[in-house]
Design goal:
single chain; 7 helices; alpha+beta; Metallo-beta-lactamase, Chain A; six-stranded mixed β-sheet; 266 residues; 12 strands; 33% helix
Length: 266
């Protein structure tokens, strides 16, 4: 938007296997905000215990597809955050499988313990390391999958475009810190892929996260320019900065703009 680089691929995304132990089941909830739909990730070895991350909307057909694909071997359900397009189906999937629902926000925990930064969830030979990545929302988590060299990012990093900072729950300062922390982890661990909450898998995580950080700082410069040229309300800033967005996502641009203004102390 507004001359900033497009991040990610424009090619359609349908989910599928990422590796022998990581699979994406795409939810049927495509929209301007969810891209091709919510990515439900299944982690674990065939025949063993499986972890589901972000069961997505409470859609009977989608949840049944998860159960069928996992042959009922789901032992834990993890949430990257509590937005309905990621978490709404968790209670129903818990009822279908008996698997505990684990999240940072206690409101979404069901039948087990919550999640915290530094936790390690084990499924057979696979480990899932929990990373605190607030910013999109206060309860946003990402996960590191060392065996696959992947970072699973929920809405913190998308497979196409950039995400909204859902102010006032989300904060831009936290988001920038989270992107920097993910970049550092990607570099140290030599991660080879980002598994996003929506859209296709991204290769070269360090380059993607650099692009995300550059995008946010460039957007802040655009906001500063709009203010200097006389914009005085979030709506006027959106009109000046987000010049080519469809009306259907204007509300999201307003949320991010309010987060930008709060970050600038305005």
């Amino acid at each position: 938007m507004s001359g900033l680089p497009v991040i990610g691929s424009d090619a359609p995304w349908a989910g599928g296997s990422f590796s022998a132990t990581v699979m994406c089941i795409l939810a049927p909830n495509a929209s301007p905000m969810t891209l091709d739909g919510t990515n439900t990730w299944v982690i674990g070895q065939a025949g063993g215990a499986l972890i589901v991350i972000d069961p997505g909307p409470d859609d009977d057909a989608h949840l049944q597809e998860i159960v069928d694909a996992t042959e009922g071997r789901v032992v834990q359900i993890l949430l990257t955050h509590g937005h309905p397009d990621h978490a709404e189906g968790a209670k129903h999937l818990h009822q279908m499988t008996g698997a505990a629902v684990r999240a940072l926000d206690p409101e979404h925990v069901l039948g087990g313990e919550g999640l915290a930064a530094g936790d390690v969830i084990v499924a057979g030979d696979d480990e899932i390391h929990v990373i605190s990545t607030p910013g999109h929302t206060a309860d946003s988590l990402s996960f590191h999958l060392p065996r696959d060299g992947a970072l699973l990012t929920g809405d913190t990093v998308l497979g196409r475009g950039t995400t909204v900072v859902a102010w006032p729950d989300g904060h831009l300062g936290d988001y920038l810190d989270s992107l920097s922390a993910l970049r550092a982890r990607a570099e140290v661990t030599e991660a080879s892929a980002i598994l996003p909450g929506h859209g296709p898998v991204l290769r070269d995580p360090v380059a993607v996260l650099d692009a995300y950080l550059d995008h946010r700082h460039a957007r802040l410069d655009q906001v500063r320019t709009a203010l200097a040229q006389g914009a005085s309300t979030p709506e006027e800033v959106v009109d000046a900065v987000y010049v080519d967005i469809p009306e259907s996502v204007r509300w999201a641009a307003l949320l991010s703009t309010r987060a930008q203004l709060a970050y600038l102390g305005l």
